[in-house]
């Protein structure tokens, strides 16, 4: 089932040059849109700043989870086991979880929990990012769904435990400020 869904999406790659370029751009560059939005939010108001901070902590937590899973579980990427349309080069590391997807869902869910309109826009970009990773031939749909769930769950954990994570962030910032004269 996973391969059939992958194939249904990936077989479109290479047929529509405009869509190929869009999917490559989303896959490689959407992170800069997220960075821009988080920096913009940092300078707006207290609520936006808090959402931006939580998004950063969620991204770090998601990266930690991603690294842990990559060390204990290996799933070959689609192009390793089968002949598929691959639009951009990739490492031959584990297909699950998708770092691109886990990060964009961690950030967009954090924003969605605090700022609905912007968060919904970012969540839409996250879905497109996941789709782009299948389109370019790097991940199976189950990798994307699992990564989206992990990234979103990390955001919810950070939001529900915001006192702990905020105190941790302030402690790290204090340590950093003491080192810089």
Give an overview of the whole structure:
The protein has 181 residues and is an all-alpha fold. The chain has one domain: Phosphatidic acid phosphatase type 2/haloperoxidase (Vanadium-containing Chloroperoxidase, domain 1, Up-down Bundle), CATH 1.20.144.10. The protein is 77% helix and 0% strand. It contains 8 helices and no strands. It is globular and about 55 Å long. The termini are far apart.
Layout of strands and helices, then pairs:
Layout: H1 2-10, H2 17-42, H3 46-72, H4 78-81, H5 99-114, H6 116-135, H7 141-160, H8 162-179
Helix pairs in contact: 2-3, 2-6, 3-5, 3-7, 5-6, 5-7, 6-7, 7-8
User: What's the total helix number?
Assistant: 8
Contiguous low-pLDDT stretches (5 residues minimum) are none
- Give average pLDDT, whole number: 90
Please summarize the sheet with the most strands. none
Q: Could you please say which CATH topology applies here? A: Vanadium-containing Chloroperoxidase, domain 1
Rg computed from alpha carbons, rounded to a whole number of angstroms: 18 Å
Give me the CATH architecture, please: Up-down Bundle
Spatial separation of the terminal alpha carbons: 58 Å
**Proportion in β-strands:** under 5%
- What is the helix content? over 70%
Q: Would you state the CATH class?
A: Mainly Alpha
The overall strand count is 0
**Structure classification:** mainly alpha
The structural domain count equals 1
Shape: globular
């Amino acid at each position: 089932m996973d391969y059939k869904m992958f194939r249904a999406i990936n077989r479109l790659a290479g047929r529509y040059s405009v869509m190929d370029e869009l999917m490559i751009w989303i896959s490689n560059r959407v992170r800069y849109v997220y960075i821009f939005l988080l920096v913009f939010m940092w300078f707006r108001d207290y609520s936006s700043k808090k959402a931006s901070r939580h998004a950063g902590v969620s991204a770090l937590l998601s990266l930690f989870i991603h690294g842990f899973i990559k060390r204990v579980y290996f799933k070959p990427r689609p192009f390793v086991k089968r002949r598929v349309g691959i639009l951009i080069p990739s490492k031959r590391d584990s297909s699950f979880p998708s770092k691109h997807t886990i990060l964009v869902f961690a950030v967009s869910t954090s924003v969605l929990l605090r700022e609905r309109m912007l968060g919904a826009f970012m969540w839409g970009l996250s879905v497109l990012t996941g789709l782009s990773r299948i389109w370019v031939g790097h991940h199976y749909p189950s990798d994307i769904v699992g990564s989206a769930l992990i990234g979103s769950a990390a955001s919810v954990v950070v939001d529900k435990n915001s006192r702990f994570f905020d105190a941790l962030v302030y402690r790290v910032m204090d340590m950093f400020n003491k080192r810089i004269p």
